[in-house]
Automatic annotation (TrEMBL):
This is Coiled-coil domain-containing protein 130. InterPro entries: Saf4/Yju2 (IPR007590). GO terms for cellular component: post-mRNA release spliceosomal complex; U2-type spliceosomal complex. Residues 13-42, 304-339 are annotated as: Disordered.
Length: 369
């Protein structure tokens, strides 16, 4: 028997004990050689068919357009390939709608692209109705740059070399291509006449036109040199924009804005003083107000230094309370006043005091202090 007859002319080997009426050839091979093994072990795609019982097949998917992953914020270009899980999720008429789910594999050495710490998937669906793909999850489609046509730009497009060769070889093709251009002949003629007129007006006297152009450039160069000189004198090494009317108005209104802000701050301080003060306090005008502020400042300074400020009621001409300040420990008893002897001489009076300094003394001051 020839080798072709042994292979049954289909290039497959049929075991002698295989009955095609009972089981398939793959099932027969799996039963004989892979007893107890998973079903995907006998599938031609092996590991890619692990989820075939769920209707999922792992395939190689190529990104149809540029997208940006929302999980790691990385850009994925058109044509990048992934191992995607392909699954049918519905139908449009008689055409199946396929879903391709894949894990983003962008790497930038940060936690965002770590597959263990931040796994994120991208899912894309087919759209048979519009004949395109839809990003369903995990990414955003990046808008591609639109190239404007020659008609939109207002210019005339050059003929393609291949198109020109076809026109030369086929007269009918040339007739079909040139027919639309003949309708635009009148418009082109008007535009060409306008360009010729503009050229004649501008360059009728080429010497005067050149002289005017050189004068404009000379003036701009002098202005630029003066600006550079002023900037160097001020120590400015950056190129500054020319002065604008808006800048001039803003500079003129700056003092007024400062006065307004200062007045607002003063009104706020006055309001805070009124809210923090007593409603029964007297309003002292002029010098009396300044003296009162000075007295309160002295009291605060003495409190900070550890002095005990008390309010006593000695007899005074004004009849008011006179604060007393105690220097030293607050709970120390006041020692007796030191004795002093006064000696009279013929030339002057000498006051002799004891050397022992008191541990504490009472200092009195009036309200005007």
């Amino acid at each position: 028997m020839s080798s072709l007859a042994a292979a049954r002319a289909d290039n497959f080997y049929h075991p002698p004990d295989w009955d095609p009426r009972k089981e398939s050839r793959a099932a027969h091979h799996d039963r004989k050689n892979n007893a107890g093994a998973p079903a995907w072990m006998s599938h031609p795609l092996r590991e890619r068919a692990k989820k075939l019982d769920q209707g999922i097949l792992t395939i190689r998917f190529e990104m149809p357009f540029n997208v940006r992953c929302t999980g790691c914020d990385n850009h994925i270009g058109k044509g990048v390939r992934f191992n995607a899980e392909k699954k049918a999720i519905g139908k449009y008429l008689s055409t199946k709608i396929w879903s391709f789910r894949m894990m983003c594999h962008c790497e930038d050495n940060t936690w965002r692209t770590d597959r263990r710490r931040n796994p994120h998937f991208i899912e894309i669906h087919t759209d048979p109705k519009n004949a395109e793909y839809i990003v369903a999850e995990g990414a955003e489609k990046v808008a591609e740059a639109k190239y404007e046509e020659a008609v939109e730009l207002g210019v005339e497009a050059l003929d393609d070399p291949e198109e020109a060769a076809k026109r030369r070889a086929d007269p009918f093709h040339m007739l079909e291509a040139t027919q639309p251009k003949r309708a635009q002949g009148s418009t082109r003629t008007m535009r060409i006449n306008e360009l010729i007129k503009h050229r004649d007006e501008g360059w009728a006297d080429d010497y005067a036109t050149s002289q005017l152009l050189r004068q404009v450039h000379r003036q701009r160069r002098h202005e630029r040199e003066a600006e550079l000189f002023i900037n160097q004198a001020k120590g400015i090494s950056l190129d500054l924009l020319p002065e604008a009317p808006e800048d001039r108005k803003a500079a003129a209104s700056a003092p007024l804005q400062y006065e307004q802000r200062l007045a607002a701050v003063r009104r706020g301080e006055k309001r805070m003083r009124l809210m923090a003060g007593s409603i029964l306090s007297e309003v002292t005008p002029g010098d009396a107000k300044a003296k009162e502020a000075k007295r309160l400042k002295l009291l605060q300074m003495r409190r900070e230094r550890g002095m005990q400020v008390t309010s006593a009621k000695p007899e005074s001409k004004r009849g008011g309370n006179v604060p007393r300040v105690q220097i030293g420990p607050m709970n120390a008893a006041a020692p007796p006043r030191p004795c002093a002897a006064v000696a009279q001489s013929s030339s002057k009076a000498t006051i002799v005091a004891t050397r022992a300094a008191p541990a504490a003394a009472l200092v009195q001051y009036s309200d005007s202090e």
